[in-house]
Amino acid sequence: MEENSFLELAKKAKAASKKIAILPTELKNKALLNIAENLLKNQDKIFEANKKDLDEALPLVEKCELSKSVFNRLKLDENKMRDMIQGIVDISNLEDPVGKTLLKHQLDDGLVLTKISCPIGVLGIIFEARPDVISQISALAIKSSNAVILKGGKESVNTNKAIMAAIQEALDMTEGFPKDVLTQVFSRDDVKNMLSMDKYIDLIIPRGGNSLVKFIKENTKIPVLGHADGICHIFVDKSADLDKAIRVVIDAKTQYPSACNAVETLLIHKDFEGTTELLKALENAGIELVSAPESWHKEYSDKILAYKFVTSLEEATEHINEFSSGHTESIITEDEKNAQIFMSAVDSSGVYHNVSTRFADGFRYGFGAEVGISTNKTHARGPVGLEGLTIYKYNIEGDGHIVKDYVEGVKKFNHKDL
Amino acid sequence: MEENSFLELAKKAKAASKKIAILPTELKNKALLNIAENLLKNQDKIFEANKKDLDEALPLVEKCELSKSVFNRLKLDENKMRDMIQGIVDISNLEDPVGKTLLKHQLDDGLVLTKISCPIGVLGIIFEARPDVISQISALAIKSSNAVILKGGKESVNTNKAIMAAIQEALDMTEGFPKDVLTQVFSRDDVKNMLSMDKYIDLIIPRGGNSLVKFIKENTKIPVLGHADGICHIFVDKSADLDKAIRVVIDAKTQYPSACNAVETLLIHKDFEGTTELLKALENAGIELVSAPESWHKEYSDKILAYKFVTSLEEATEHINEFSSGHTESIITEDEKNAQIFMSAVDSSGVYHNVSTRFADGFRYGFGAEVGISTNKTHARGPVGLEGLTIYKYNIEGDGHIVKDYVEGVKKFNHKDL
Question: Among A23, A131, A32, which residue's Cα sits nearest to residue A76?
Fold first, then answer.
C-alpha cells in the first residue's frame, strides 16, 4: 500500500478508536458472539482458503524454504477452529477492562478526582503464519475498546482474508458497531508504514519469532509490547530437593522446548549433593547438556541445556541478572530464606520457587486471555491480559473550582480517598 | 564523556539498580533524611556555586542569549532551598511504592501467584536549568528504588555539582547504601550516549521545554515519560453557567500562562447565550482573543487564547481529539449528561467538568510528589507520582509443580483470588 493510502487507513482507525472507546459492554459482547457465530457459519470457506495456503506452502516446505513447524502452525483444522471460536466466547465472558474506577479521591469539598481505565487507542499487530491470531487479537481489541491494524504473514494470506471477511461481516451485522475498528493490511511496505506512524498507532504487538520482534523493536518509536528472546534460568540451590529439581528441570526443558518460557540455562550450587543424579536424570530424559556454551545468551529452543556451577546464591542471581532476557526464572531450594532473596533480587517478569518456568502464561495465571508475554520494564510485564490493552484517564468533577483560590490560600485542599 | 566511559558508567548504574531494588524502606528513608540534613549543612557552598552560575549567565541574559525566565529558574534562594529540603523530607514520609502486593491468586493447591510492585531499573533524567530538579528526582528515585543518571543544563553546572556533592556525601554516610545509585553527567555527548543505551537505561524522563522533549522523543528507543506540548481546551457548552465559565477560563489562561496545563483553545457552543459577556470578561482580564489562529496546534504560553464556535458537543469532542496534545481538557456545562459524554469521549489524560485545567498537577491530585506529567498512552498518564517509577513482577511459590501435569490433565487449575 502507498504511504498516503496507509495514512488514510491509520486516520480512520484512530477515528474508529474514539468511537469504540465509548461503546457499551453489552454491544461489544454482542459483536464478539456474532463473530463466533459467523466464523462457525463460514468455516468451510475458511478451510478452503486455508487449503489454498497449504497447497502453496507445501512445495516451499519440500524445498526447505519454509520450516515444517511454520507449516504446522499455518494449518487450520476443526479442533483449532473450535478453540478459536471458544476463545472468542470466553473473551466475551471476561469482565470489561474499560471504565473501571481505579481511584476516587476528594481534593476539596465538591471537587472529586476519579481515575478510570480506558483503552489505549490503535494497536498495530504484526504476526507470522498463525491465522488463529487474527480472531484472538481482534476479540481482545474489541473487548478492550481498541482499534486494530493487523498485518499477518504472507503464507496465510488466503486464510487471513477469509477469517477477516467473516469477522467484518459479523461486525456489519452488529447494529451500532462502528466502522474501521479492524483493518487488515498485507504488504511488507505496510509493516514499514505501520512502524512509522507513531502519530496514529499507539502500541505495536508483534507475535512471532525472535527475529521479527527484534526487527520491530529496532525500527519504531511506537511502544512495543512483547518479548524477543526467552533466556530462562533455573538455579538448583545447595539445599534443593533432588526429586523436585529433576521434575522441574525436565518439565521446563522438555515439555515444550521451543516455548519462550522453556529453560535454557541451569545453574547448580557447587555444594549441591545431588548433582550427579540430577545431570544423569536430565540426560536420561533426552536432554543434551552443554557445560561450555558459546554464549550464555543463546536460546536453544530444543532439548539442549547449558549448565554452570556457581559458588553462591549471589553468584546465581548476578549471572541471571546479567544474561537473562527478563522472562522467567526459578529457584529450587528448601531454604525459604534463600528463596525470598532470589525472588526479590532477580529482576525478571516471573521469578518462581520450586516451580517450572513453563507456568509463565496468561491462561495458567488465570487471566482468561493473553495478548502475549512482555519483557518490557514499563507498562505491562509478564503474561499480558486485557488489562495490558488499557491505560487510564483522570476525571475531575467540580463546580467552577479554580486554582487561583488554592495558590492564594483562599481555599485549602482536604485530600481524602472516597 | 567517551562512549566507552559512559558505557561503564551505565553498567555500574544497572548493577546499582539491582542493589537498591532490595533495600529496606527504612534504609531508603534514612538516606533521604541524611540528604535533607546535608543539603542544609552545605547550603552556603551551594549558594556560592549558584552565584557563580548566575554571574556567568547574566551577560547572556543581557545579550538576549538566555531568557529571563530561564535565568529566574536558575536562581536558588533560601526559600527555594527550604522547599527543596522539605520536598525530600515529604518524600521520605510517603508510602514505599516498592514491594506492594498487587494481586494474590491461587493457581492450584500449594501453587500461589503474587504480583508485586518493583522498581523499573535505571532512569535517565535530562533537565534544563532548574537545579532543584536534581534533589527532587534523586529523592523520588531513591524512594522508588531506581538508579539514576542525571544530565542537567549547562547554565547550572556549578550549582548541580555542589548539590550532587552534598547528596553523594549524605549517601556515603548512610551505612549499607549502595554505590553508583546516582550519577551525574555533563556534556552534550552524554545526552547522545544516554539516549542510545537502551540496554542499560530503562526510562528517560525529560524535564524542560517542548523542544527538549521533542528532540528526546525523536532520538531514542528507550520509553520516554513526559509531555512535549500542552494544548489544553475548554468547551463552553450551550447550558454552561456564565459565571463558572468566566471564572474557569480566566483561571486556566491567566493564573500561570506558561504552564503546560494552561488553556490554549476555547470552544464555545454557538447557542450559548452568554458569549458576548464571556468574551468581554476575558478581554477585561487581559486575555488577547484570536478567532482565526494560524494553527489549532499552537501553544501560546502567554495570555493569548484561540477560540472557535462549534455547533454541537460532538463537534467539540472531535476538535479536541484531533488537535489536543492529550494533556487536559474541561467542559463547562450544567447538563450532567453532556458532561458525562464529554468526559468519556475525550481522549486526554485529564478530562474535567466545571473545573480549571490548571488542576492537572501531582500535588493538587494528592500524590505527594510528581515526576512530571505524561501524555503517553502507555505505562503512566497524567501527573505521575512514585507509582509511575515502578512496574511489577510475578512470583510463584510451589512445591515442585510442573506444567506437564496440567497439560496431560493429571492435575487441574483451581484459580481463586486470595
Answer: A131
Strand order in the sheet with B203-207: B182-185, B147-151, B122-127, B203-207
Using the beta-carbon criterion (under 8 Å), do B413 and A366 form an inter-chain contact? yes
Residues 275-304 of A with CB under 8 A from B: none
CB proximity list for B233: less than 8 A, separation 6 or greater: B263, B264, B265, B266, B267, B319, B320, B323, B324, B329, B330
Tell me the C-alpha distance between A325 and A347, whole Å: 10
| B353's grid cell | 467538568
ipTM above 0.90, yes or no: yes
Q: How far apart are CA A9 and CA A21, in angstroms?
A: 18
Burial tier of B93 (Cβ tally within 10 Å: 0-12, 13-18, 19+)? exposed
Strand B182-185 versus strand B147-151 pairing type: parallel
pTM of the entire structure? 0.94
Q: Per residue of chain B (418 residues), what is the pLDDT tens digit?
A: 888 999 999 999 999 999 999 999 999 999 999 999 999 999 999 999 999 999 999 999 999 888 888 888 899 999 999 999 999 999 999 999 999 999 999 999 999 999 999 999 999 999 987 888 899 999 999 999 999 999 999 999 999 999 999 999 999 999 999 999 999 999 999 999 999 999 999 999 998 888 889 999 989 999 999 888 899 999 999 999 999 999 999 999 999 998 999 999 999 999 999 999 999 999 999 999 999 999 999 999 899 999 999 999 999 999 999 999 999 999 999 999 999 999 999 999 999 999 999 999 999 999 988 889 999 999 999 999 999 999 999 999 999 999 999 999 999 999 999 9
Mutate to test the interface with A, among B214, B396, B410, B418 (most CBs of A within 10 A): B396
Residue A118: C-alpha distances to residues A63, A121, B389 (Å): 48, 9, 21
**Residue A117 and residue A99 in contact, taking contact as beta carbons nearer than 8 Å:** yes
Concatenated DSSP letters for A242-282?
HHHHHHHHHHHHHSSTTSTTSEEEEEEETT-TTHHHHHHHH
A106 neighbors A418 (Cβ within 8 angstroms): yes
CB contact under 8 A, B202 and A378: yes
Q: Which residues 205-224 of B have a C-beta within 8 angstroms of A?
A: 217-218, 221, 223
Cβ pair B167, B138 in contact under 8 A:
yes
**CB of B95 closer than 8 Å to CB of B174:** no
CA atoms within 13 A on the CB side of B317: 21
- Exposed, middle or buried, B336 (CB in 10 Å: 0-12/13-18/19+)? exposed
Could you please report the per-residue DSSP string of A98-124? SS-EEEEEEEETTEEEEEEEEE-SEEE
- Taken in order of first residue, the domains within chain A and their CATH numbers are 3-225+371-393 (3.40.605.10), 232-359 (3.40.309.10)
Contact yes or no for B202 and A377 at CB 8 A: yes
